[in-house]
Design a protein that fits this description.
- The complex is a heterodimer of chains A (about 170) and B (about 400).
- Chain A is built from 5 helices and 4 strands.
- Chain A is an alpha+beta fold and about 170 residues long.
- Chain A has a 4-stranded antiparallel sheet with strand order 1-2-4-3.
- In chain A, helix 2 packs across helix 3 and helix 3 packs across helix 5.
- With about 400 residues, chain B is of the alpha/beta class.
- A 4-stranded mixed sheet of chain B has the order 1-5-9-10, with helices on one face. In chain B, strands 4, 6, 7 and 8 form a 4-stranded mixed sheet that branches. Chain B has a two-stranded antiparallel sheet with strand order 2-3.
- In chain B, a hairpin with a 2-residue loop joins strand 6 and strand 7.
- The longest helix of chain B is centred in the middle third of the chain and has 40 residues.
- The radius of gyration of chain B is 46 Å and the shape is rod-shaped.
- The N and C termini of chain B lie far apart (about 125 Å).
- Classes of the chains: A alpha+beta (about 170), B alpha/beta (about 400).
- Chains A and B meet through helix 4, strand 1 and strand 2 of A and helix 3 of B.
Chain lengths: ~170, ~400
């Protein structure tokens, strides 16, 4: 299930398991530092053993897969783009992922400018003049792909890592 | 010790002063021969600050005017970052407000302090008000529908709409108004009918009634009924087909008792049994809503009374009025026969006073035409009329 060799993704939502049953005392939440510990050490080793480009591609694709599954499992009932955006906002807040906000949306062209404040990946990290939320880029691309059926080019243009105080993403259909 | 030219100190002081008093401070020219020391570094930092502060001021002024489309300040200063966050939040709020303006009241704003509370409270209030309005509108629609249905039985749709718009018009007690009653007559109608085919007469009457209705409605009048007046039997003047014509003693009875002679020419009118095929056709094309049956008393004393319900045309029974005059000429009547009545009380004032046989005859006419009878005349006198 988790360790089979594979050419294509075999991720399924039930791999997340029954957290309530598994953590009756500690519950579903954990300290954000632990998430970052895992992500940044993983990134560290990927870059060491491969390169930055490969590490970014892996993070983007993993985020995209997560976004698609997130949409299918939590946002499938949204009837229009407005309620879809409102649903993302609500779930990202409830799960502590970040404060999702739409800055602008051109429904005809299908392009968006989105911000995520207090982002899971980067808020509060040392300024390093790098946009590092590659997983988030993939996550947003995955959400939009699953909901609209279209591939989006999602690019982070502002990041805490590059000295800003919110993460800003542009999403343009490819 | 580093020695500094007094002029350089003055320029830095002037730049800071300009900023303080709200003037534009231009970057300080660095002399080429200034050594690469802490003073050069200080002026470089001051110049960089002046450039970023200028861009920051311009962005702030644009935001103050509500221009939120672009952001072109490249600076890591905390104050600039705070402004950028404010800019981003304002754009987000603009988008949210647009969604609310488009009717999406499910939108909520998170983590913007008092503004979030106020915005979310506003959308909730709007949502509650809209639901309340929809509920009230539904109740109002139900009441209006009831009023329309109730009053619509007695008056035109236009009048019902006026009553709904001005409910004070519903007050009891009535109102004194001056009224005009217009009685119209078609001059030379009988002579004209003698010359025309029945279909042409119907077309002419329809044109006439359509024009009259238009004028009545144009002047705010209302038409609650169109009453078709028909004899309890059939007569015709002039040549042409008359499928139910009676050329026997019964025909003579109708002619004689009914005084069926032309008013101008004294020519005897051709008489026959009531033709329901023609009557149904007339009710349909004229929009007749009630019938007035005249001369019922003429049928007194006849042992049997026939009424034509269908035609036999080329061996087939039809229950419609043929379009061509040739086909009408070829039609033979198919009758339903009723038992006659011997006498009728001329003082009859209500339907139930009529002989049972006459009642059955009239009910049959109503059933076949699907038009209720409102008046029945049982004699030439004004008071010999029964309202049903």
């Amino acid at each position: 299930m988790f360790k089979e060799e594979r050419d294509q993704s075999q991720f399924t939502w039930n791999m997340i398991g029954d957290i309530e049953a598994g953590r009756p005392n500690l519950g579903p939440m954990m300290h954000l530092a632990v998430y970052r510990l895992m992500q940044f050490t993983l990134r560290d080793i990927l870059i060491r053993d491969f390169d930055v480009e490969t590490a970014d591609r892996i993070f983007f694709e993993a985020g995209k897969k997560a976004g698609e599954e997130f949409c299918r499992n939590l946002l499938a009932d949204k009837e229009d783009m407005n309620s879809f955006c409102a649903g993302i906002q609500q779930h990202m807040k409830e799960l502590g992922i970040g404060i999702f906000r739409v800055e602008s949306a051109d429904y005809e062209k299908g392009s968006f400018v989105i911000t995520v404040a207090e982002d899971l990946d980067c808020s509060g990290i040392p300024v390093c003049n790098e946009e590092i939320c590659i997983y988030d880029e993939g996550f947003i691309a995955g959400l939009l792909l699953a909901y609209t059926g279209k591939d989006f080019a999602v690019k982070e243009i502002d990041c805490w890592g590059s000295g800003d105080r919110i993460c800003r993403f542009t999403a343009i259909p490819q | 010790m580093i020695s500094v030219a007094e002029e350089l100190i003055d320029r830095i002081t002037a730049a800071i002063h300009y900023l303080r008093v709200g003037k534009t401070a231009r970057p300080i020219d660095i002399p080429e021969d200034l050594p690469d020391n802490e003073i050069r570094q200080l002026i470089t930092y001051v110049n960089r600050f002046l450039v970023e502060f200028s861009a920051f001021s311009e962005a702030l002024a644009q935001m103050a005017q509500g221009e939120l489309h672009t952001w072109a300040v490249a600076s890591r200063m905390a104050v600039v970052q705070s402004l950028k966050t404010l800019h981003s939040n304002l754009r987000h709020l603009t988008w949210k407000t647009q969604q609310v303006a488009d009717g999406d009241l499910e939108q909520k704003v998170d983590f913007m302090g008092d503004f979030s509370t106020a915005f979310n409270s506003m959308t909730q209030q709007l949502k509650d008000s809209r639901e309340q309005l929809l509920k009230l509108n539904e109740q109002l629609e139900t009441r209006n529908r009831f009023i329309r249905e109730t009053f619509g039985r007695y008056t035109s749709d236009d009048i019902v709409e006026v009553l709904l718009d001005m409910p004070e018009g519903l007050k009891l007690g009535g109102e004194k108004r001056e009224l005009t009653i217009l009685m119209t007559d078609l001059r030379g109608f009988t002579a004209m009918v003698e010359r025309l085919e029945p279909t042409a007469v119907v077309a002419l009457l329809n044109n006439y009634l359509s024009a009259m209705i238009e004028i009545i409605q144009q002047y705010g009048g209302t038409i609650d009924e169109i009453i078709g007046i028909v004899k309890a039997y059939t007569t015709r003047v002039g040549e042409g087909p008359l499928p139910t014509e009676l050329l026997d003693k019964t025909g003579e009875h109708l002619q004689k008792v009914g005084h069926e002679f032309g008013t101008t020419t004294s020519r005897p009118r051709r008489c026959g049994w009531l033709d329901l095929v023609v009557l149904k056709h007339s009710c349909m094309i004229s929009g007749i809503t009630k019938l007035a049956i005249t001369k019922l008393d003429v049928l007194n004393g006849l042992p049997e009374i026939n009424v034509c319900t269908q035609y036999l045309l080329n061996g087939k029974k039809i229950d419609y009025f043929p379009a061509s005059i040739e086909d009408v000429s070829a039609c033979k009547p198919v009758y339903t026969t009723f038992k006659g009545w011997t006498a009728m009380n001329p003082a009859s004032s209500k339907f139930s006073d009529l002989p049972k046989e006459a009642q059955a005859y009239l009910r049959f006419i109503e059933k076949e035409t699907d038009v209720p009878i409102t008046l029945i005349s049982i004699g030439p006198g004004r008071d010999e009329t029964i309202e049903v």
